[in-house]
Structures are given as C-alpha cells and as structure tokens.
Amino acid sequence: MPGLPIEVVLFKSENCAGCQAADRIISSKVSELNSSQEAVRLIKYDIDTEEGFKEAEKMGVESTPAVFVSGKRYMGKIGDEFFEFLCKKISEKAKALA
Length: 98
Hints:
It holds the Pfam family Thioredoxin_3. InterPro entries: Thioredoxin-like_fold (IPR012336), Thioredoxin-like_sf (IPR036249). Belongs to the glutaredoxin family. Residues 6-72 form the Thioredoxin-like fold domain. This is Thioredoxin-like fold domain-containing protein. By secondary structure, the protein is of the alpha+beta class. It has one domain (6-97): Glutaredoxin, CATH 3.40.30.10. The chain has helices at 17-33, 50-59, 80-97, and strands at residues 6-12, 40-46, 66-69, 72-74. It has a 4-stranded mixed sheet with strand order 2-1-3-4. Helix 1 (17-33) links the parallel strand 1 and strand 2. The termini are close together. The mean pLDDT is 91.
C-alpha cells in the first residue's frame, strides 16, 4: 500500500528491564500487523551506543524506553493499547491516501 509503512522508533538500553519488555511486546505487535504486508517499520536504537545516543539526543529522549510513532512521542501503555493505536494510525493513513 503506497504511503505505508508507519514508522515506529524504540529507544532502549540493554540494562533496562522495562526496555526489554517493551521491545518484546512492540516487536510482537509489529509482526502481527506486518503478517501480510509491511504496514509498520520498526527501528530500534540502543542509547548505550554512539548512534543510539545521538538519535536520542535529536529526539529529546531523556529516559527509556521511549517510543515514537511517525515522529511523535507515544505516551500510552505498551501492549493492547499500543496495538490499537497503531491500527488506528494505519487506518487513518490508508484513508488519507485513498
């Protein structure tokens, strides 16, 4: 579908238990959404690396895990609420492109 995928960026740290949980949940939800086509592109940055730290600085990340969807910080819960949020974003983008 033209105009997709929705970009999801996850900032994490290897020493952050919450980050590992968020990574597992988000990766699982993205896999579900991408089962038939790439609707969501997941980009992960480890803030303990130079590249990850620089990207986090650019985006204003002060703590992890931090999630951005289409360039905007996602502040909701990671899990079913996040899955519903992504589904809504995909639907909105598809309608806008129709």
